[in-house]
Amino acid sequence: MKKIITALTCVMCVCLFLITQAYAVSDEALNWYCVRNKEHKQPRLDTNMSFIDQYDAYYVDKAHTESSDEKVIYLTFDAGYENGNIEKVLDVMKAEDVTGAFFILENLINKNPELVCRMADEGHIVANHTSHHKDMTKIDNIEDFAAELDELNELYKATTGKDMAKYYRPPEGRFDERSLSFAKELGYKTVFWSFAYADWDNQKQPSADAAKAKIFENLHNGAIILLHPTSATNAEILSDVIKTLKADGYRFGTLDELTEK
Questions:
Q1: Helix (H, G, I), strand (E, B), or coil: what is residue 39?
Q2: How far is CA 38 from CA 43, 69, 217, 218, in A?
Q3: Within 13 Å and on the Cβ side, how many CA atoms surround 189?
Q4: What CA–CA distances, in Å, run from 86 to 21, 77, 119?
Q5: What is the CATH classification number for the domain harbouring 151?
Q6: pTM of the entire structure?
Q7: Average pLDDT, the chain
Q8: Could you give the residue numbers annotated as active site?
Q9: Less Cβ around it within 10 Å: N or C end of the chain?
Q10: How many domains does the chain have?
Q11: pLDDT per position as a tens digit, 172-211
């Protein structure tokens, strides 16, 4: 009898270990990227990142491909501070009657609350890029992960009187399966991108022609475009980019539309 109990105990331990392993999530940190092409097809997601689909994470509109009748683009911006260019970007978008999504940091609300209120008032989605631009893969528990997002949510609510949209973008595109699982458990949808370019360094801004060429060469239906609104080049070219996209038959979608599919 004792041998049977011991054997059953061992079997239960093995089963418990297997169940635990099945539900374990990886904490291997990754830097977001997707593989571009020159055929204007949606970029390919590497297999080692395919797990993002399990965690309400998006990088492209899979319902709108090169073979779709409708053409749609999603404009998103990562905004941590103002240097005169965010206001210019908002002016262009208002003039062109286009909305997008702004992933912001606490610093922008503290120093430029009027700009953040304007984003909300003019119909843009304002979403969470964390309070302090931390590497969220270094957080190993959901309580601390939530605190970093909640601090920004509460400040936004106090400043605008509105709730921040439940979209999350990892700082610098650094993520792991664990952080995505935390975000999903907290009710967030993670938004990566299918196109971005080197626009973030204010001391190394590309020329307007080079930037537009880079954007249009890599354009694809269903694109989630990431731009930094602090970029002087982006502020300069945004009107031309939007007008060109409109002329080419694109409309500008919202993250709400994207994630409801």
A1: coil
A2: 10, 20, 7, 6
A3: 16
A4: 46, 10, 10
A5: 3.20.20.370
A6: 0.91
A7: 92
A8: 78, 228
A9: N
A10: 1
A11: 999 999 999 999 999 999 999 999 999 999 999 999 999 9
